[in-house]
Batch of 2 targets.
Target 1
Amino acid sequence: MTSLAAPQQCVEATAPRAVLAGWLTVLLAGLFCLNTAGGWVRLSGAGVAIPHWPVIELDEGRKTLLPPLSEAGWTAAYAAWAGHQAILRAKIEAGEIHGAALGRQPESIGDFRSMFLIEWFHRLLAAGVGLLALACLGTVLADRGLRARIGVPVGLAVLLIATQAVLGAALIGQGTSTRWLFLHQGNAALILACVLVAVLRLLGSSSEGGRPVAVRSLVLAAAASTWLMLMLGGLLAASRHNLPSGGLLGLDAGPAWWPAASLATNLLDNASLHHLVHRLGAVLVAGMVVWAMVLAHRRAAPERTRLALSVAGTFVALQAVLGITAAVMPRGEVVVPLAHLFLGHVLFLVLVLAAFDLKQGQEQTQGVPA
């Protein structure tokens, strides 16, 4: 009886992990969609079409979670947007924010309706992702084994999602060109990483192979640099209004340092400096990924790690093409910058996966008695 009970207990213990891993994978996909929708909102200039959060405030104090369902409702929503635009213009005149913070100016009520629905869909998707994350956390907390295995990454993901919501609400008052959007970008990448680590812990480590410490250190450095590059991209998206037309790639983009400005102003608003650091950072990340890929093959790293680094190398090349294309395209284009953002998050997660495999293998090796 004992020999038959042991496999049955193993199956019963594995089943909840497999189910939860599936739901966490759905959560990961939802987060990707949410980040892409957020980039769409930012690049389309629709970020302040709904000036209130978390509810939509209309005339006479009416509040709702749904978009307007009548022409009168749309007129009230447009009036609320116009009132918020007046507040932003006052901040622009006071020098608190840049003129680009007003976002895209709709040509008609129909154009405003499209902007409104873009932002509303982003918020709806965010609410769905948040509820799914809470459900996953509740499942984890209810099971002692799951708490021990993935309690930390799932709990941290939910905490960061809450932070993301608060941060997004705080940024509404700064318009669509706020310099602090890079914090939103970096936090989103960390959420993705936490959920991915939880999935990988449930599914187990990769196939057997060597776990060279040098490769793992290099992969961790590449992942950290990619995360910084994602935030720098968000900072650059907000500072591009400082660049002259046609000066995005050449030295004519302007001085890389503003002598009359403060250190904080240069770091947050100098788009020429952002471009320079972004280009140098891209070369650095590419070099680290290629070198890690070579070392992983030479030192017989796990097969999944070698595959992940090979994929990362391909993504680096694609990112270079997309980055150059996005830089020379006219401002207001959405598709290429959005693809650049999406692929940047994918590259970051691929490097997180490779680092996880190398770490797990190293821990397993250290746990084996001599």
Target 2
Amino acid sequence: MSVKVSNLPEGFRGRKRFVPKLHIKRGDLVKVLSGEDKGKTGRVVRVFPKKGLAIVEGIALVKKRVRKSQRYPQGGVVEVERPIPVCKLQVIDPSTNQPTRVGRRLENGKWVRYAKKSGKVL
């Protein structure tokens, strides 16, 4: 059975995995909604869209044992951030400094993210 390409969602071609759009980007200031770091804020360092995970600066620290290398010249035990699910994060609106949901709208032919509470572009 073959599937017509025109019936598939935008961005989905062939047997590739569909990657959903996320509400956060690298550099966003976010607040943790649940878990052991609930209530803490930090800046997003890296996002993994296919897995739905993000690494946030100073959040979800774990101790890792490493050998000496160029990256870790001393070796030993170091603290690194582990990825946490994106669903546990909420973007902080820069104009109000409050957590807010994120929407998308078309402005001047380009999609932009905006804060649902204030309506301002992020």
